[in-house]
Amino acid sequence: MVQRLNPSGTSRGAVPPPACYDTCVATQIEVVPTEDEFRSAVGMLKLLGDETRLRIIWALLDGEHSVNELAELVGAHAAGVSQHLAKLRLARLVRTRRDGTRIYYVADDTHVRRLVEQVLSHADHVTRGADGADGGPSPKTTGRARATQP
Predict the structure, then answer these.
(1) Full residue range of the structural domain in which residue 86 is found
(2) How many structural domains compose the chain?
């Protein structure tokens, strides 16, 4: 048991220790990002703030795809997907591989993967509740096919 003090400084008696959680979060920031890092992060988050771009990145987490494949997966026109991919490429969120006249896109690295998986996992917790109490499937059980659903 832990002794807690009330605002006047006197003891309130024995209080049980705080609950233990599965996830530990560091409360001290050891390194403060630079202004350039903040600006870069904001730019990336803004790009991912577009639903079509987020769906594109989600589809690319499974591997490389051409523009036409991505357009079919996300339910958009190829020309629009191509423009989104150009922006994502400039932000270094995706990279390309050329095979003859065809270009294939893939998520750039594990940082992009973790960022997208974490934001979608958090969205799942917010919209469904932390324990999936609504009985619906979670992203972990539906796999990447969720990206093709409207």
Answers:
(1) 50-148
(2) 1
